Prior knowledge:
single chain, 356 residues, alpha/beta, Rossmann fold, Rna Polymerase Sigma Factor, Chain: A, 3 domains, 4-stranded mixed β-sheet, 14 helices, binds NADP nicotinamide-adenine-dinucleotide phosphate
Amino acid sequence: MANLLILGATGSIGSTAINAVRNKIIDSRITGLVSYSSDLSELGKEFRCPTLKAEGCSREEIRSFIRNAKPDIALNGVAGTDGLIYTDILIDEGIDIALANKESIVLGGRSILNKAKEHDVRIIPVDSEHSAIYNLLKERKAERLILTASGGPFYDRKDLSSVSVEEALQHPTWKMGKKITIDSATLANKGLEVIEASYLFSVDAENIDVVIHRQSIVHSAIQTEDGAVYALLSPPDMTLPIAMAIDPELSSKAVAPLSFRDLSLTFSAWDEKRFPMLSLAYRAIREGGNLPIAYCAADEACVNAFLNNRISFMDIPAIVQETMERCKGTEPSSIDEILDEARSFHQMAETLCLSR
Ligand SMILES: NC(=O)c1ccc[n+]([C@@H]2O[C@H](COP(=O)([O-])OP(=O)(O)OC[C@H]3O[C@@H](n4cnc5c(N)ncnc54)[C@H](OP(=O)(O)O)[C@@H]3O)[C@@H](O)[C@H]2O)c1
């Protein structure tokens, strides 16, 4: 039975993982739980493990907590750019990572992946799209990746200028944290995922397609050299990708199998004009340098401002674009430089939000 550390234990990903352990879908012993400021005392009692509220903790305090938990694998379900700090510590400590925090890859890029390789640490993606592709690639090589997107709540709404926070928080198929839910409404989430896929699977932007698939049953697909397409299908429930990442030998049923007789699956193109955040992500990969960092950090600042009613829904892509244009530069080489740049792009986007 593997020792499991859960980072972001009170969030949507963390809670799904905890339920999977409770329900014995994942055969693991929880040896540590981390949140930012939410109380963990009940969970700590239930799993008889140490807990940490990381608010105000130094990197060394976090490192020492992680080390003492002695995990075989850690689930990184922290929301936002701070997730990279945890991924970096886990790699230093030689701990395998089930990675839900996509910001770690979008910001960390090649530096974090190379560092993981050097430390012989496995990064197993949890994002459902990347989990699907990761598992499909075990058996074959891909020529193209096809990422599916639910399209969010506004996929067929013509005018997005007056979108309210409450409307943007209504995701049609997934129940998730607020940041990723807003990102799903602007398609920035898909943008982050395209960048994540490009780094994780070493595929350039031209060979990654995004297709709208309202039902969120096909989690993604790969096309091989011979033209065949392989896809992974399951209900929209993060239990399966989390369980597959934590326990590669998984033998219990993580989700109810699909009944094909009841399925009706649709696919369509996405609209570049109404969803500029996805086009900006493609630009970030094509032009490279520090643009993925600017994209990710500026988006985080903008989503926060939108959630606090400080900017409008369509200000998000406008400010992200402006930050990318002002910040264009080369790819930083160390994780500390990446974190510094992310902080300054975040600040610049916040200043732009204030001027709206
Ligand atoms: N939700 C999904 O279905 C889904 C699917 C694919 C990928 N992801 C990715 O998984 C990550 C988590 O998403 P989520 O929806 O689970 O977010 P969430 O519901 O907002 O939960 C975030 C968790 O992270 C913790 N946290 C935030 N900042 C932290 C910090 N600096 N140090 C320690 N803990 C911190 C929060 O603790 P507090 O409660 O104390 O604030 C909370 O436990 C994101 O990167 C997201 O893109 C999520």
